[in-house]
Amino acid sequence: MAKNSFSGVFPPSICAGGALVTVLAAYNGFTSLRSMTFQNCTTLEHIDFTENKIVADLMACFGKPPEQLRGLTVSNNHLYGTLLTDDGEVFLCNSTRLSLLDLSNNALNGDLSNSKCLWNMRHLEFMDLSSNSLSGVVPFLATPNRNLQSLHLANNHFSGAFPLVLKKSKKLITLDLGGNNFSGGIPSWISKSLPDLRFLLLSSNMFDGIIPSQILQFRQLQLLDLSKNKFTGRIPSNFGNFTGMIQEQKNGNSTYCYLPAEQLRIVLKNEGYLYNFTISFIVGMDLSSNFLSQEIPKGLTSLVGLRYLNLSRNHLSGGIPGDVGNLALLESLDLSENQLSGEIPPSLADLKALGTLNLSTNGLSGRIPTGSQLQTFPDPSIYSNNPGLCGFPLQDCVNPSASNQNDMKQDEDMETLWLYCFVVAGVIFGFWLYWGMLFCKETWRHVFYQYVDSMQDKVITKKIAAYRASKLRHE
């Protein structure tokens, strides 16, 4: 029945025909389920109503699921109410064979602090309760589920420390706790207890402290999201040792068979992107919106399998690593709103796969590198608030030597101009001073005229004497 255009009320007599094993009604337009529709489906093992329009109370529809139920998927509907029965346990406690549970993207609520069976269902491999209004502290259990491979609790109201119940979940591959109220530090046991972890998402919580060095012991980790927390200190210098990020991830070389309902939401360019069937290709690191400081470790550039890297909105200083061009697969790079300085490394222009770039609000300077890929970013805002930057798409850079020559020529021209001005001013001043004094003082005027007459007499006398002497010599 999946992927059709069925609508209205789901047939309540679905189990009347005999030994029904699977109900696959995903991606339709069903709006309602009659109360206890599946109560008499004693052989039913799988129920899937993903992405319908069902508006109903969860307990009224599925309050008494079959004991042999293995999979319940009702994500992306409008289910409301609680998961808890009158005794405070979840309604699925009798379904001991359950391996797949997906109640995500509904309007469910309730405090799960006292629920024990939810966390120790020994066959449960996949659980997604994300995007509801669930709350409480994840309890510690002496006998937790050891087969859990994927746990999604994102976008709820869970609180408390990092769930200690996961310490025995050695098969865990995906852990998404983002968008809750978890607090405290990342426990030191995490890498030893979760050796196969590939996807760790802790964003938008209140985790604090330094990033523990033990996190570097993850051999398979290919996605790390610690964004929007309160982590402090420096990024560990050996952050380039994540084996799962050093090599390109290909669908064929993965030893993990991703469950059908597995999906992750990644924030790129301030937008969320949902990955499901392409989850094996996700390789990225997001440490944005924390209080991390000091330099970007050069070891990060050895993670050549990275497809996105976000270190924005921290207090990072120093320069951008010069060999950033080694990240040949990088599609998104965000280093904005830090205190980075120096020039942009020329190797940045070598990132042929780069589709998103943001270096704004730093202290970068110099010419923006030129290259075929960087020329595809015409938006000047990705370099904004870096007063020392120039070049495309910002204003053109001025040649330093030409600038010096122009400055020298301008200085010489100014000196010549000032010289002329002083000479002209001196002549004018002397002229008026001389003639002003001469004509304003009568006695000086008479003396001047007498001096001129005497000088004239002397000149004439000398001329006559010279003429007579010359004439005598010729005679």
Structural account:
18% of the residues lie in helices and 24% in strands. It is of the alpha/beta class. It has a single domain (7-390), classed as Alpha-Beta Horseshoe (Leucine-rich repeat, LRR (right-handed beta-alpha superhelix)). The strands form four sheets. Strands 2-4-6-8-10-12-14-16-18-22-24-26-28 form a 13-stranded parallel beta sheet, with no helix packed on it. Strand 20 (264-268) and strand 21 (271-275) form a beta hairpin. Helix 4 crosses helix 5. It is elongated and about 160 Å long. The protein starts with 6 loop residues before the first strand and ends with a helix. Residues 252-258 have low confidence and may be disordered.
The percent range for helix content is 10-25%
Strand order of the largest sheet: 2-4-6-8-10-12-14-16-18-22-24-26-28
Q: Point out poorly predicted stretches.
A: 252-258
Structural class: alpha/beta
CATH H-tier superfamily: Ribonuclease Inhibitor
Q: Can you tell me the CATH architecture?
A: Alpha-Beta Horseshoe
**Main β sheet profile:** 13 strands, parallel
Distance between the termini: 149 Å
CATH topology: Leucine-rich repeat, LRR (right-handed beta-alpha superhelix)
Number of domains: 1
Share of β-strand residues: 15-25%
**What's the β-strand tally?**
30
What's the CATH C level? Alpha Beta
Let me know the average pLDDT: 84
Envelope shape? elongated
**How many alpha or pi helices?**
5
